[in-house]
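Lab channel / #folding
Pinned by the channel admin:
"Please post every new chain as: sequence first, then the C-alpha coordinates as a reply. Keep commentary short and put observations after the output so the thread stays searchable."

First post following the new format, from NK:
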Amino acid sequence: MESILTDRLATLSHPHRMAVFRLLMRRCPDELPAGEIVSVLGLKPSSASVYLSALTQTGLISQRREGTKLLYKINLAAAGEVVTGLFFDCCGGRADLCAPQLADLIQTAPLPTDKKLNVLFICSGNSARSILAEAILRDIGNDRFNAYSAGTAHRSDLNPTAIDVLLANGLDTTQLRSKNVTEFQGPDAPQMDFVVTVCDRAANEDCPTWQGQPIASHWGMPDPASADGTITQKRLAFQQTFDALRNKIAAFTSLSFESLDRSALQKHVDEISKLTLPKD
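Reply from TO:
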Protein backbone atom coordinates (compact mmCIF):
# COMPACT_ATOMS: atom_id res chain seq x y z
CA MET A 1 0.00 0.00 0.00
CA GLU A 2 2.85 2.38 0.87
CA SER A 3 4.54 1.82 -2.51
CA ILE A 4 1.25 2.60 -4.30
CA LEU A 5 0.92 5.83 -2.32
CA THR A 6 4.47 6.95 -3.06
CA ASP A 7 4.07 6.06 -6.75
CA ARG A 8 0.90 8.13 -6.93
CA LEU A 9 2.46 11.07 -5.10
CA ALA A 10 5.47 10.92 -7.42
CA THR A 11 3.13 10.93 -10.41
CA LEU A 12 1.26 13.97 -9.11
CA SER A 13 4.50 15.81 -8.32
CA HIS A 14 4.90 16.74 -11.99
CA PRO A 15 2.99 20.00 -12.70
CA HIS A 16 1.58 18.85 -16.06
CA ARG A 17 0.45 15.49 -14.71
CA MET A 18 -1.16 17.33 -11.81
CA ALA A 19 -2.87 19.68 -14.30
CA VAL A 20 -4.38 16.70 -16.13
CA PHE A 21 -5.51 15.16 -12.83
CA ARG A 22 -7.13 18.41 -11.68
CA LEU A 23 -8.88 18.92 -15.02
CA LEU A 24 -10.43 15.45 -14.88
CA MET A 25 -11.45 16.06 -11.26
CA ARG A 26 -13.22 19.29 -12.23
CA ARG A 27 -14.96 17.54 -15.11
CA CYS A 28 -16.07 14.55 -13.01
CA PRO A 29 -18.08 12.46 -13.86
CA ASP A 30 -17.32 13.19 -17.54
CA GLU A 31 -15.00 11.12 -19.70
CA LEU A 32 -12.67 13.29 -21.79
CA PRO A 33 -10.98 12.33 -25.06
CA ALA A 34 -7.23 12.85 -25.19
CA GLY A 35 -7.64 15.51 -27.85
CA GLU A 36 -9.78 17.68 -25.60
CA ILE A 37 -7.29 17.37 -22.74
CA VAL A 38 -4.52 18.45 -25.11
CA SER A 39 -6.57 21.43 -26.31
CA VAL A 40 -7.70 22.63 -22.87
CA LEU A 41 -4.26 22.42 -21.26
CA GLY A 42 -2.23 23.46 -24.29
CA LEU A 43 -0.08 20.31 -24.23
CA LYS A 44 1.80 18.61 -27.03
CA PRO A 45 -0.02 15.37 -27.99
CA SER A 46 3.12 13.30 -27.44
CA SER A 47 3.67 14.79 -23.97
CA ALA A 48 0.02 14.41 -23.03
CA SER A 49 0.19 10.72 -23.99
CA VAL A 50 3.08 10.23 -21.54
CA TYR A 51 1.25 12.07 -18.74
CA LEU A 52 -1.99 10.14 -19.31
CA SER A 53 -0.11 6.85 -19.36
CA ALA A 54 1.59 7.60 -16.04
CA LEU A 55 -1.68 8.60 -14.38
CA THR A 56 -3.42 5.50 -15.77
CA GLN A 57 -0.66 3.14 -14.64
CA THR A 58 -0.90 4.35 -11.05
CA GLY A 59 -4.70 4.05 -11.13
CA LEU A 60 -5.36 7.75 -10.55
CA ILE A 61 -7.40 7.89 -13.76
CA SER A 62 -9.12 5.26 -15.89
CA GLN A 63 -8.94 4.75 -19.64
CA ARG A 64 -11.62 3.39 -21.98
CA ARG A 65 -11.59 2.96 -25.74
CA GLU A 66 -14.62 4.02 -27.77
CA GLY A 67 -14.09 3.40 -31.45
CA THR A 68 -10.87 5.16 -32.38
CA LYS A 69 -10.89 7.43 -29.30
CA LEU A 70 -9.40 6.91 -25.87
CA LEU A 71 -11.54 8.39 -23.09
CA TYR A 72 -10.16 9.31 -19.66
CA LYS A 73 -11.95 9.74 -16.34
CA ILE A 74 -10.90 10.50 -12.78
CA ASN A 75 -10.72 7.54 -10.40
CA LEU A 76 -12.38 8.92 -7.27
CA ALA A 77 -11.56 5.85 -5.20
CA ALA A 78 -7.85 6.22 -5.92
CA ALA A 79 -7.96 9.93 -5.14
CA GLY A 80 -9.57 9.09 -1.81
CA GLU A 81 -6.85 6.55 -1.07
CA VAL A 82 -4.19 9.22 -1.61
CA VAL A 83 -5.92 11.58 0.81
CA THR A 84 -6.38 8.80 3.35
CA GLY A 85 -2.75 7.76 3.04
CA LEU A 86 -1.51 11.31 3.57
CA PHE A 87 -3.76 12.23 6.48
CA PHE A 88 -3.94 8.95 8.38
CA ASP A 89 -1.23 6.44 7.43
CA CYS A 90 1.67 8.91 7.33
CA CYS A 91 1.11 10.35 10.80
CA GLY A 92 2.30 7.28 12.68
CA GLY A 93 -0.69 7.40 14.97
CA ARG A 94 0.40 10.67 16.64
CA ALA A 95 -2.67 12.62 17.67
CA ASP A 96 -0.71 15.88 17.59
CA LEU A 97 0.17 15.33 13.92
CA CYS A 98 -2.90 13.67 12.47
CA ALA A 99 -5.39 15.98 10.88
CA PRO A 100 -9.02 15.62 11.99
CA GLN A 101 -11.14 13.30 9.92
CA LEU A 102 -12.31 16.05 7.62
CA ALA A 103 -13.79 13.68 5.06
CA ASP A 104 -16.08 12.11 7.65
CA LEU A 105 -17.10 15.53 8.96
CA ILE A 106 -17.85 16.86 5.48
CA GLN A 107 -19.65 13.74 4.26
CA THR A 108 -21.94 13.38 7.26
CA ALA A 109 -22.63 17.05 7.91
CA PRO A 110 -26.26 17.72 6.98
CA LEU A 111 -27.26 20.68 4.88
CA PRO A 112 -29.19 23.37 6.74
CA THR A 113 -32.93 22.75 6.66
CA ASP A 114 -34.01 25.96 8.38
CA LYS A 115 -33.25 28.19 5.41
CA LYS A 116 -33.34 28.19 1.64
CA LEU A 117 -30.42 26.46 -0.05
CA ASN A 118 -28.23 28.64 -2.26
CA VAL A 119 -27.48 27.25 -5.71
CA LEU A 120 -25.07 28.86 -8.20
CA PHE A 121 -25.01 27.86 -11.88
CA ILE A 122 -21.85 28.77 -13.81
CA CYS A 123 -21.03 28.93 -17.50
CA SER A 124 -18.42 30.92 -19.39
CA GLY A 125 -20.42 33.99 -20.38
CA ASN A 126 -23.53 33.90 -18.15
CA SER A 127 -25.62 34.77 -21.17
CA ALA A 128 -27.56 31.57 -21.95
CA ARG A 129 -27.20 28.19 -20.21
CA SER A 130 -26.58 29.39 -16.65
CA ILE A 131 -29.22 32.10 -17.11
CA LEU A 132 -31.76 29.48 -18.19
CA ALA A 133 -30.86 27.33 -15.17
CA GLU A 134 -31.22 30.24 -12.75
CA ALA A 135 -34.66 31.12 -14.09
CA ILE A 136 -35.85 27.51 -14.09
CA LEU A 137 -34.78 26.83 -10.49
CA ARG A 138 -36.35 30.09 -9.36
CA ASP A 139 -39.58 29.03 -11.08
CA ILE A 140 -39.90 25.46 -9.78
CA GLY A 141 -37.99 25.66 -6.50
CA ASN A 142 -38.41 29.20 -5.22
CA ASP A 143 -39.90 28.01 -1.93
CA ARG A 144 -36.74 26.05 -1.02
CA PHE A 145 -33.88 27.50 -3.07
CA ASN A 146 -32.19 30.80 -3.86
CA ALA A 147 -31.08 30.59 -7.50
CA TYR A 148 -28.01 32.42 -8.80
CA SER A 149 -25.91 32.32 -11.95
CA ALA A 150 -22.56 33.75 -13.04
CA GLY A 151 -19.94 33.56 -15.77
CA THR A 152 -16.20 33.09 -15.71
CA ALA A 153 -15.84 35.71 -18.46
CA HIS A 154 -18.16 38.68 -18.03
CA ARG A 155 -20.48 39.65 -20.84
CA SER A 156 -22.83 42.58 -20.44
CA ASP A 157 -25.74 41.31 -22.54
CA LEU A 158 -27.99 38.33 -22.03
CA ASN A 159 -28.65 36.22 -25.10
CA PRO A 160 -31.96 37.53 -26.52
CA THR A 161 -33.04 34.09 -27.73
CA ALA A 162 -32.55 32.67 -24.23
CA ILE A 163 -34.79 35.41 -22.85
CA ASP A 164 -37.39 34.79 -25.57
CA VAL A 165 -37.48 31.07 -24.74
CA LEU A 166 -37.89 31.78 -21.03
CA LEU A 167 -40.77 34.18 -21.72
CA ALA A 168 -42.39 31.73 -24.13
CA ASN A 169 -42.34 29.11 -21.35
CA GLY A 170 -43.94 31.51 -18.88
CA LEU A 171 -40.89 32.25 -16.73
CA ASP A 172 -40.07 35.59 -15.11
CA THR A 173 -36.93 37.28 -16.48
CA THR A 174 -37.02 40.57 -14.56
CA GLN A 175 -34.32 39.53 -12.05
CA LEU A 176 -31.88 38.20 -14.63
CA ARG A 177 -28.61 39.95 -15.42
CA SER A 178 -25.14 38.90 -16.51
CA LYS A 179 -22.68 38.52 -13.62
CA ASN A 180 -19.10 37.42 -13.07
CA VAL A 181 -18.16 34.71 -10.54
CA THR A 182 -16.13 37.26 -8.56
CA GLU A 183 -19.44 38.74 -7.40
CA PHE A 184 -19.98 35.55 -5.38
CA GLN A 185 -16.50 35.23 -3.91
CA GLY A 186 -16.25 38.28 -1.67
CA PRO A 187 -16.76 38.33 2.11
CA ASP A 188 -20.30 39.71 1.74
CA ALA A 189 -21.40 37.23 -0.93
CA PRO A 190 -24.04 34.61 -0.09
CA GLN A 191 -22.50 31.29 0.93
CA MET A 192 -23.34 28.61 -1.61
CA ASP A 193 -24.65 25.16 -0.81
CA PHE A 194 -24.35 23.92 -4.41
CA VAL A 195 -22.18 25.10 -7.32
CA VAL A 196 -23.00 23.57 -10.72
CA THR A 197 -21.09 24.25 -13.92
CA VAL A 198 -23.27 23.85 -17.02
CA CYS A 199 -20.62 24.28 -19.71
CA ASP A 200 -17.35 22.45 -20.24
CA ARG A 201 -15.32 25.62 -20.70
CA ALA A 202 -16.23 26.93 -17.25
CA ALA A 203 -15.52 23.54 -15.66
CA ASN A 204 -12.13 23.46 -17.36
CA GLU A 205 -11.07 26.65 -15.61
CA ASP A 206 -9.39 26.45 -12.22
CA CYS A 207 -11.77 28.56 -10.11
CA PRO A 208 -10.87 29.61 -6.55
CA THR A 209 -12.11 27.48 -3.67
CA TRP A 210 -15.63 28.35 -2.57
CA GLN A 211 -16.39 29.28 1.02
CA GLY A 212 -18.46 26.88 3.06
CA GLN A 213 -17.59 23.64 1.24
CA PRO A 214 -20.51 23.67 -1.24
CA ILE A 215 -21.36 20.50 -3.12
CA ALA A 216 -19.94 21.00 -6.62
CA SER A 217 -20.95 19.18 -9.78
CA HIS A 218 -20.69 19.47 -13.55
CA TRP A 219 -23.69 19.21 -15.89
CA GLY A 220 -21.96 19.91 -19.19
CA MET A 221 -24.30 20.96 -22.00
CA PRO A 222 -23.70 22.13 -25.59
CA ASP A 223 -23.88 25.87 -26.18
CA PRO A 224 -27.19 26.61 -27.97
CA ALA A 225 -25.76 29.93 -29.15
CA SER A 226 -23.31 28.03 -31.36
CA ALA A 227 -26.06 26.12 -33.20
CA ASP A 228 -26.10 26.51 -36.97
CA GLY A 229 -29.08 26.71 -39.31
CA THR A 230 -32.13 28.87 -39.73
CA ILE A 231 -33.58 31.15 -37.07
CA THR A 232 -36.13 28.44 -36.30
CA GLN A 233 -33.42 25.79 -35.92
CA LYS A 234 -31.36 28.03 -33.66
CA ARG A 235 -34.38 28.76 -31.49
CA LEU A 236 -35.07 25.02 -31.29
CA ALA A 237 -31.54 24.53 -29.90
CA PHE A 238 -32.34 26.96 -27.08
CA GLN A 239 -35.67 25.23 -26.38
CA GLN A 240 -33.95 21.85 -26.24
CA THR A 241 -31.39 23.24 -23.79
CA PHE A 242 -34.23 24.69 -21.71
CA ASP A 243 -36.03 21.32 -21.67
CA ALA A 244 -32.87 19.41 -20.74
CA LEU A 245 -32.07 21.81 -17.90
CA ARG A 246 -35.64 21.73 -16.63
CA ASN A 247 -35.48 17.93 -16.55
CA LYS A 248 -32.24 17.98 -14.54
CA ILE A 249 -33.38 20.72 -12.17
CA ALA A 250 -36.69 18.95 -11.55
CA ALA A 251 -34.72 15.86 -10.52
CA PHE A 252 -32.48 18.03 -8.33
CA THR A 253 -35.40 19.67 -6.50
CA SER A 254 -37.00 16.27 -5.85
CA LEU A 255 -33.99 15.02 -3.85
CA SER A 256 -34.51 14.33 -0.14
CA PHE A 257 -32.19 17.02 1.18
CA GLU A 258 -33.36 16.49 4.76
CA SER A 259 -32.48 12.78 4.89
CA LEU A 260 -29.37 12.55 2.66
CA ASP A 261 -25.88 13.34 3.94
CA ARG A 262 -23.41 15.28 1.81
CA SER A 263 -21.75 12.17 0.42
CA ALA A 264 -25.06 10.76 -0.80
CA LEU A 265 -26.15 14.12 -2.15
CA GLN A 266 -22.90 14.44 -4.10
CA LYS A 267 -23.54 11.10 -5.79
CA HIS A 268 -27.14 12.01 -6.64
CA VAL A 269 -26.21 15.42 -8.02
CA ASP A 270 -23.46 13.86 -10.14
CA GLU A 271 -25.91 11.28 -11.48
CA ILE A 272 -28.24 14.07 -12.60
CA SER A 273 -25.59 15.12 -15.12
CA LYS A 274 -26.31 11.90 -17.04
CA LEU A 275 -30.04 12.52 -17.35
CA THR A 276 -31.39 12.87 -20.87
CA LEU A 277 -34.82 13.83 -22.10
CA PRO A 278 -37.13 10.88 -22.81
CA LYS A 279 -37.52 10.22 -26.51
CA ASP A 280 -40.92 10.74 -28.08
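NK: The radius of gyration is 20 Å.
TO: also worth noting, Strands lie at 32-33, 61-66, 69-74, 117-123, 145-151, 194-197, 215-218.
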